[in-house]
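Worked problem 6 (solution included).
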Amino acid sequence: MDLNGGNQRRIGTGPDGSATPDVSPDGQTVTFLSTTANDLNALFSISINGGTARQVTPTLWGTAVKHDWAPDGSRIVVSDNADDPDHPTNLATVRPNGTGLRYLTDLQAPDQQALAGGYSHRRSSHGSSIGARRQADGTSPATTR
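Solution. The predicted structure is:
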């Protein structure tokens, strides 16, 4: 849709709807969450012109809601656990085509979480910093870079 809300059109959806859409920096791809057949969230992508949605992230324990594109469009930051209290939530990046999954944290305890905030667009045009929230045992979250 246009910035004024006009020209709305449906470009596609995932296996079970879509949520939290985000447009790539070049404006050519939309990423969004959808629930897969095993009832876990995964990140999907689709061309801005429509077509078939493609799964980007694996569904180990689901993908948390927040995700963000690197300013140059080369990677997407995600958290790997949506709702499973028996597993920790770790921060990872992945290429838009679903390859190159790289974990940035290695939390082991189920009560530990590293939640994606986003790439630091203001500090650098190449997105060398990622904002995240890390918490454990219900303690106050801290922002890290």
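Discussion: The chain has one domain: 19-144.
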